[in-house]
Amino acid sequence: MLVGVSGGIAAYKACELVRLLVKAGHEVVPLVTPAAEGFVRAATFDALARRSPTQEPYPHLARADLLVVAPCTANTLAKLAHGLADNLVSEAALAHEGPTLVAPAMNPRMWAHPATRANVERLRSRGVELVGPGEGDTAEGEQGVGRMAEPEEILERCTALLRPNNGSLHGKRVLVTAGGTREPLDAVRYVGNRSSGRMGVALAAEARRRGAEVTLLGANLAVPPPPGVEHVDTPTTADLEREALARADADLVLMAAAVADYAPAHASLEKRPKDGEPWRVELRPTRDVLRELSQRRTNGQVLVGFAADTGRRGLERAREKLHAKGVSLIVFNDVGRGDIGFDAAENEVTIVGRDGERRVAKAPKERVAAEIVDEAERLLEGHGRASAH
Ligand SMILES: Cc1cc2nc3c(=O)[nH]c(=O)nc-3n(C[C@H](O)[C@H](O)[C@H](O)COP(=O)(O)O)c2cc1C
C-alpha cells in the first residue's frame, strides 16, 4: 500500500496511521512531499514502515493495491484532480491503477472554496474515495469542516477497500434508489425535484465497500454511480417502480430517491407550442413505491425509507410514515435547509426506528451513509438471529 503524506499540520497524524497500518499487517510504502518534509521527515515514516529510505526511487513504478493520501492538502488534492505529477505523491498517484483513498485536511475556508469543491467532485467522479474531513477546531483555532479524519477511521476504510469480499455485507443483495424522478409534461418538459442523488450514491458506495452486491436505480443523477455497482437508469417514477419491484427480494432496500408523489395526468408526446394561453396541468398521485415494496417484503428484508420533508412537523410526519408504510427505518432529512439535504454535499438526518431514534450530526453524505448502513445492518443481524431460532 502506498501512503502519500502532503504538507499539512496533520502530517503528524500520518505517523500514527502508518503505525496502525503496519500493525494491521500491511506493507506500507510511505511517499512524502517536499512540503510535508517540513512537518515530519520522510525518515520517520520509513522507520515506522520498517523500510529502508532507498527502497522506492521511482514512485510511478510502484505497484500497489491501494493508495492513501493522508493528510491531503488543498494543493495535493488539486494536483490529483488535474493529473499533475511533480513530486513523489502526485507522480505515484497518476501511475496508480487501484483504489485511492484521500483524507483531506485544510483550513475550512480552503475546503469550502469553489476550486476545492470542484476538485473534490472531479476526484469523486473518477471513483476516488474520500474519508473526512470532519468538523471541529482547526490547529489555527478556527471552527469548521477541514480536520483530517482520525487515523483509526482511515485504517478502517483502508481495510474495507482492500477486502470487499470479506465485508460485513458480503453475500447480501442491496437495492438502492437515488436521485429525483422527472414526470414528463410533454416531449421536453417535466415536473421534477432538486434531488442530485448524492445521498443514494453514497449509500450504494458504502454498501459496496462492505462487500454487498449492489444495484443502484438512478433517477437523473447529478453525480456518477460508484464503481463496482450495477447501475440502472430509471428517470421516471414508472421506471423506478418497475425496476424496484423486479428486485423486491433484495436483503436490504435503501429508498433514497426523491420519487414524485404527483405526476401530470396527461403527457403529450410532442412539444406543446407556445401560444400565450395559460397551461393548466392536472397532477395525479403516483403509486407509492415504498408501500408496494413494503407489501411484498420477504422475511428478513430490511426496508429503509427516506422522508424529505421540512421542519419539526416533517419529523413527526416521518414517524407516522414508519408505521403507516410498514418499513424498518425512516431517514428524515430537512430539505427546507439550503446547507443540507437536496443537492448538498452534506446532510444531517434523524434515523427513526421502531425502538428509538438516532440523530446524525451534519457531516459529509459519505459519513451519514455509513451511519445509515450501520443501523440497517444491525436490523439485518437481528433478523438473522431471529430466523436462526
Ligand atoms: C504551518 C503550515 C500549515 C499548513 N497546513 C496546511 C493544511 O493543513 N492543509 C493544506 O491544504 N495546506 C496547508 N499548508 C499549506 C501547504 O503546506 C502548501 O499549500 C504546500 O504547497 C502544500 O504542498 P504539498 O501539497 O505538495 O504537500 C500549511 C502551511 C503551513 C506553513
Structure description:
This protein is α/β, with parallel strands linked by helices. The chain is built from 13 helices and 19 strands. The chain has helices spanning about 10-25, 35, 40-50, 75-80, 90-95, 110, 115-125, 150-160, 200-210, 235-245, 290-295, 310-325, 365-389; strands at about 1-5, 30, 65-70, 100-105, 130, 135, 145, 175-180, 185, 190, 215-220, 230-235, 250-255, 260-265, 285, 300-310, 330-335, 345-355, 355-365. An eight-stranded mixed sheet has the order 12-11-8-13-16-17-18-19, with helices on both faces. A five-stranded parallel sheet has the order 2-1-3-4-5, sandwiched between helices. The protein is globular and about 70 Å long. The model is unreliable at about 385-389 (pLDDT under 50). It binds flavin mononucleotide (FMN). Flavin mononucleotide (FMN) binds next to α2 and α4.
